[in-house]
């Protein structure tokens, strides 16, 4: 039950359409059930963590693994193509420039889709019928290529 008075409507600043002044802003009038809603919200969050906590921790581990592997491979790719761009050999310079411009010009989501779906299809077309990439491998390759191109620049 909420006590709505003319003074609480003035504090809120919405004289016409404020049915629940406690939702709209600071008021001296509070709902009797306001603390119960907060407690219910905390209980709901705890139940979500209890139910899905293990899955969230596994996902956190996969994310950290993807990040570390991608960073490691991106540094290697970036170093190789960066040295190609700085060298005096025109052929290596051209290869490095083409790689950087091509990979940086493609959105990461397109690159990820190409690696996850296109590379296995292409390999199966070449005769490697059992070639597959799981999500971690494809994600690591896509992020490594993309970040490596940015590092090479």
What is this entry, summarized?
The chain has helices at 6-12, 21-24, 34-86, 90-105, 108-125, 135-152. With 153 residues, the chain is mostly helical. Mean pLDDT is 82; it is low at 7-11 and 21-29.
Radius of gyration from the alpha-carbon trace, in angstroms: 28 Å
- Based on Cα principal axes, name the global outline: elongated
Strand element count: 0
Please mark out the parts with pLDDT under 50 across 5 or more consecutive residues, or reply none.
7-11, 21-29
Largest β sheet strand count, sense and barrel closure: none
Roughly how many Å apart are the termini? 63 Å
The arrangement of helices and strands along the chain is: HHHHHH
The fraction of residues assigned to DSSP E strands is under 5%
Structural class: mainly alpha
Number of helices: 6
- What proportion of the residues is helical, as a percent range? over 70%
> What kind of oligomer do you see?
single chain
Write the layout of secondary structure elements.
Layout (H helix, E strand, L loop, with lengths): L5 H7 L8 H4 L9 H53 L3 H16 L2 H18 L9 H18 L1
Helix pairs in contact: 3-4, 3-6, 4-6, 5-6
What does this 3D model show about the protein?
The structure is a single chain. The chain is mainly alpha-helical and 153 residues long. 76% of the residues lie in helices and 0% in strands. It has six helices and no strands. Helix 4 (90-105) crosses helix 6 (135-152) and helix 5 crosses helix 6 (135-152). The radius of gyration is 28 Å and the shape is elongated. The model is unreliable at 7-11 and 21-29 (pLDDT under 50).
